C-alpha cells in the first residue's frame, strides 16, 4: 500500500512538472530586452540568479560581453518595468531595447568574433 | 650533484612557508561550420568563484589557480558552456560547440553532475556540487550513491559503519584525502566516511588505478579526494536541516567571513545529528541502525595576497557516540550476559591542517607545503568485549614544481614527505602499541609535447622504521586520438600499512574472538589499468562512452579469514594468490534537453587465498549495474532524480568445520535498490524530499543467532545487502551569497 502510494506520488510529481512546462509554452509569453552595464562574468551570474526567481520568468539570457539581458515571462504575471527595477535593485542599469536591437547586437558580436578568428587563423598559418 | 638534490629536498621539508597557486594557460576554440578556430572573449571562470578572465583575440587565456580550484567554466554567447576539471598546470585546450538554438531564447546553464575528464592523465571522475545535491543525506559515504565506480555497503548489521569499495576492493586500498592531504585513516578507517558532512563538501574527485607518487605510496586501487567549501567562495551563509522517517534529525551550517577583503577569509562549519528513535523493523530484537549522536565544529582560514603567496590553516573537532545491539541495550549498562547485548562506540577526534605555497612571478616554479595532524580516541564495547584505542598522526609534505622549459613541455615535481603515527590499542586486556615513522622522497616527471599527449612517470623511496626501505614506481600515459578517442594506461606499485585490529573492529560483532599473528603488517600490490573514453554527438547532444579495465595483484595482504575455524576469526597474512579484476562500461548522454542519463555496468572478479584455497572474496557483489536519470526544468527551478542500482550476487562465508551448517558455499542473490529525489529551488532556499530504498528491499536475517546474542551462533558480520528498508526524508537548504 505504502509502496503504491509512493510510486503514485512520484509519477504525479513527474507529470506535474512536465505539464506545467508544456502549458507554459502554449500561452503567449512576453519578451523584453535590456541594455545594461555589467563588467564581469560575476555580475552576469548575480543578475541571472536574481531574475530567474522573479515572478513569471520563463526564460532568461544574460550576457556581460554584449551587456544585454533578455527575459521571457508569462504575460500578466510581471511587467517590463518591474523586471527593469529588479535589475536596478541589484545595482545595474536596465535600458529597455527592442528585440530587434537585441538581435542586432548579438549578431554583431558573433560577426566580430568571426573576423578576429579569421585574422588569427591566417597569422597562425 | 646527487647530494645537492637530496639536500635541497630535505631543506624543502623544513621550509614551511611555501604554496599553491599556479597559472593555468590554454586556448579556447570554437567548432563551427568553418572548422576549429580560436575564440576570443570567452569567459573563463573558476566554478563557484568570482575569479575569472576572458580569452584574448587569439583564443588564449591565462588564469591563476588557487588551491581547491579545479573546475574551469567556459562560456560564450552562441556556444554551449563547458566545464573542465583541471588537474595539473598543463596548458588546456577547450573546444566550444555552437549553441544551435541561438535564435531562440535559451540559455544552457545546467551543471553536469559528474563527468569524466579527458585532459587528466589519470582516469578521474569529478563529482561536483550538482551531483552532491542528488544524495541529500548525509555524509561522504552517501555521496557515492549515484556513482558507478564506488560501491557503498554496511560493514556489519549493528554498528552502522559504512565501507566503500573502489574497483571492487575495500576502501582501505584507496587513498582517502581531504583537500589533497591523506586523512581519516588508522582509527578513523571504520567510521571516517561518516565524518565528513555532505553539505560541507564542494566536490569529490575519484581517480582509479595507481595515483601520483606525490600523494604517497598507499593508493593501490585509487584515490578519493574530498574538497570542502572554501572560505573565499561567494557563499556567505549556508544552513541545512534534514529529517527522515526513522527519526534522524540533522543540522549543517557554514558561514564565510571576509576578514580583510579577498586577502584574509575565514570559514566556520557546524554539524550535528541525532537519532534517538529505536527502529527494529525486521523484528529480530536488534536495532536496524544504532542510536547515534554527533557534533562537529570546524574553522578554517585562508590568506591569499594575490601575488603568488597563499596560506591556509584550520581545525575540526568531532565527538560522536553510537549505541547498537538489542533494542533494550543501554549506554551505561555493564557488559554482562545477563544484560542485553549492546555495542557502544564513542569517538573523539581533533584534526588540524596547515598548507602554504608560493608561485614565482615567472609562474614556472612553485613550492608547496602541506601538513595535517590528528588525534583520535575510541572507547567501545561489543557485547562482552572492550576495545579502546588512541592514535596521534602527523603528515607533512613539501613539493617543488618546475617547468623545465617555457612551453611547459617538461615538468618536474619533486619533494619529500614525513609520516608519524603513534597507535595504542587495548583488546582482550592486551596492550598493543606501535609507532610508525616514515620519511620519504619522491620525484615525478611529466612530458606533454602537445595537448593530446601526456606521459607521466614518478618514483618515490620511503624509509619505513619497521618495514625498511621500499621503492614505489608509477607510470601514466594519456593520448587523445582525434576528436573522439582518449586512451589512458597506468601501472604502478602501492604499499599500505594495515592496522590489523582497528580496521576490523566491526568483526567483533560476532561470537568468535579475533586471532591475529601481527598487529601491523605491510600490504603490497601492483595495479595496471587501461581506459578508453569516446566522445560523440548523438542527436545533437554529447555522448560519452567509457570502457575501463583494472587489475590489482597482491604480493602481500591482510586476509580476514572467517571460514577456516569455528573457534575464531583469523587475521593473517596472505599465503598464495590474491587479485582483483574490474571491468566497467558506462554511458552518459542527454536524450532530451536537461535530462541526463547515466548507464553503467561493472563486473568484479575478486579472488583471495583463504585457508589455502583461492576463493571469491566473501560478501562482494560479482557485478553492479546503475541507471541514473536526472531532469531539471528550465532555469533549474525543479530537479528530479532517480537511481536504480543492480547489485550482483556473491559468496557468504560459512565455517567449514561447523557440523550444524552445510559445508557448501552459500550464495546471496542479486538485488535491486532504488532511490528517488525531488528538489525545488527558490531564490534563497531550496527544499527536497526523497526516498531511499524505494522498493523496501532488506536482507533477511542480517544477524545470525539474534535470539541468543551471547551464544555460539551469533554473527552480525555476514551483511551483503541493505539492513534498513525504505526511508523517506525531507530537507531544507538556505543559501546566502556575497554579491
Let me know the largest β-sheet of chain A.
4 strands, antiparallel
- The first-to-last residue Cα distance of chain A is 71 Å
Annotation, overall tally of beta strands of chain A: 4
Number of DSSP helical runs of chain B: 2
How large is the share of residues in beta strands of chain B?
Answer: over 45%
Question: Largest sheet of chain B at a glance?
Answer: 22 strands, antiparallel, barrel
* Beta strand count of chain B: 45
Strands ordered across the widest β-sheet of chain A: 2-3-1-4
N to C succession of SSEs of chain A: HEHEEHEH
Q: How much strand content do the residues of chain A show? A: 15-25%
CATH topology of the domain at 27-111 in chain A: Alpha-Beta Plaits
Structural class of chain A: alpha+beta
What is the CA–CA distance across the termini of chain B?
53 Å
Oligomer: heterodimer
Helical residues, percent of chain A: 55-70%
Please state the average pLDDT score of chain B.
86
| Overall 3D form of chain B | globular
Low-confidence stretches of chain A: 114-125
